[in-house]
Amino acid sequence: MIPGEIDDPPSPIPTMAETQKQDNQYVVQDDGVDGHERENASEYADLKYQRGFGNHFTTEALKDALPEGQNSPLNCPYGLYAEQISGTAFTVPRKYNQKSWLYRIKPSVTHEPFSPREPPHSRLMSDFTDASNSFVTPTQLRWKPEDIPNGKTDFLDGLFTICGAGSPFLRHGFAVHMYAANSSMENSALANADGDFLIVPQQGRLWIKTECGKLEVSPGEVVVLPHGFRFSVALPDGPSRGYVVEVFSGHFQLPDLGPIGANGLADPRDFLSPVAWFEEKEIPGYTIIHKFGGTLFESKQDFSPFNVVAWQGNYAPYKYDLRKFCPFNTVLFDHADPSINTVLTVPSERPGVAVVDLVVFPPRWLVAEHTFRPPYFHRNCMSEFMGLICGAYEGKAEGFLPGGASLHNCMSPHGVDTPTYEKAISEEPRPAKIEGDTLAFMFESSLIPRVTARALESPKRDLNYYKGWIGLRSHFDRNNIPQTVRKP
Ligand SMILES: O=C(O)Cc1cc(O)ccc1O
Ligand SMILES: [Fe+2]
How far, in Å, from the CA of 415 to the mean position of ligand 2? Predict the structure, then answer.
């Protein structure tokens, strides 16, 4: 076994025959849901992962498939092709450098020429420097959950863009997308040449084949599919919905912990990358979809792109279970800024300023004394996109539903709604737990996102959102003089 692999239950590296047996475990189930193809659950049972954030992994699906002592030997073991994927410029400082070497049956270049995908994906947007189909608005925005489509829709076709800033052409910025889908990607894989995808499933598991191996991602977990890797998403539970943040500016890092110390928040060991897995499959008409400069291109090849028998390096997909997050908080008074809940960050060139932070609001104890405990009223120079995976968000008693979303853009005032405020100020502040299975999250950015026409015009947009604050009444009483300033 390769050191660092999680192996539960223990099993040896599969032989070629065993691997091919696994590859044949595709079945077509007529389940009445469009009759779409579903993959056999056993293919995703007992998946193994390698632990650690940014580790230099080594993994092989066939014994000794990784070349020893060099990356690019004249003849690779098993007659494999060696191929490097670089996630950072060759010359970035070593501590930021990300690359992996893949050893594969055929190289990724073996395909017909690219042509723009027809019809174009009209709901997906990446270039926010083109102001023709997106708008800037300071209005506080909220959306109800998107309906799962009736017609057959896979992960890629189910994506729609909410907002974003910058452009992949500038290699700077981000986009927030959501998806609502009901079927698996069939004989097709997507590679995003524009940036990293971080996916937050809200309903339905994702079975993701990548060139580095397979991942199962359930609601409550997030997955990062880095720039350039090919992947294909199957939906074992059918109807699926979730959020995606796409980053054009670099990669996610763990935040520094500062005075918190060496432990806490997201623990590096809880990040899981796949182990090498491959399928040696001829598939006539297999489609590679390449997202590049915001446009989808496609090309055909006649074999599965998931043909990497072994790989080594620190550039690979990974997943993380948000329920493993170890939250820190105030233990005496006042409300901590939400940055205390940062899971991952994509830093900008300015110290402490993120292109995107992923922030989570998990169940936790609230113990602050003489303190307004819910999120404070505020205006933020950063923009805040929020989603709810399950449960209820502590800042909103009404209208923010699992699968829904909100956007509070740079300096747009916001805070708790009226019922949350009234309840908080009338309650005895005993230690209390935000109970149950609740998970809200935020994509926070220093950039000013433009909002797509589709998101602004969506029937799911909650045009009454502002009313939750209009109801805030004045509690001002000139005669209610604080103890400290009362005359003796
Ligand atoms: O606006 C929000 O709900 C997110 C948020 C939460 C919090 O606890 C403090 C500040 C903040 O922006
Ligand atoms: Fe906020």
Answer: 7
